[in-house]
Structure to design on (177 residues):
């Protein structure tokens, strides 16, 4: 069916770019391909001029990335503390459900906010370093005393690119300075 769809688009548009399909090679193995083509008229007849690229490795990498990201999401959702992953400026990249619900937002909606605007109402971020940091504060955003723990979030080369910020309600358990 994909071939018929590809040919239909080619006839309608005259060209098709990056049309992805799953096909089977001569050995029966499934492959992912990306086709780009255009209709050409030469010597009174029509023919197709184009390229086909094997994108199987990219599709496998995308699938592995998606699976890993989903696993990470399910893992942090299992944590009862509030968890947010931010970039170095405090933009929220990922949170658990507990974090989002504490602010009356969905996990998608919370990403439109900066961490410090939700938790600290504009107060500076607790900076992140190699060791990680911790403090007890009053959060005007949550209206409770919280233990805030910040750990570095690193890229594959080991450079700090953000922070994992974990909040635990400690109201009534500790005094806040």
């Amino acid at each position: 069916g994909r071939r018929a769809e590809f040919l239909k688009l080619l006839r309608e548009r005259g060209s098709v770019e990056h049309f992805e399909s799953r096909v089977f090679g001569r050995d029966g193995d499934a492959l992912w391909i990306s086709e780009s083509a255009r209709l050409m008229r030469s010597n009174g007849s029509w023919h197709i001029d184009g390229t086909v690229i094997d994108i199987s490795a990219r599709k496998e990498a995308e699938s592995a990335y998606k699976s890993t990201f989903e696993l990470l999401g399910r893992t942090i959702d299992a944590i009862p503390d509030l968890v947010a992953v931010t970039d170095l400026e405090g933009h929220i990249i990922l949170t658990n459900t507990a974090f989002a619900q504490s602010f009356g937002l969905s996990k998608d909606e919370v990403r439109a906010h900066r961490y410090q605007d939700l938790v600290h109402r504009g107060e500076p971020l607790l900076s992140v370093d190699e060791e990680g940091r911790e403090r007890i504060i009053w959060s005007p955003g949550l209206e409770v005393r919280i233990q805030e723990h910040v750990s570095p979030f690193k890229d594959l080369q080991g450079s700090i690119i953000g922070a994992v910020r974990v909040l635990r309600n400690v109201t009534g358990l500790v005094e806040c300075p």
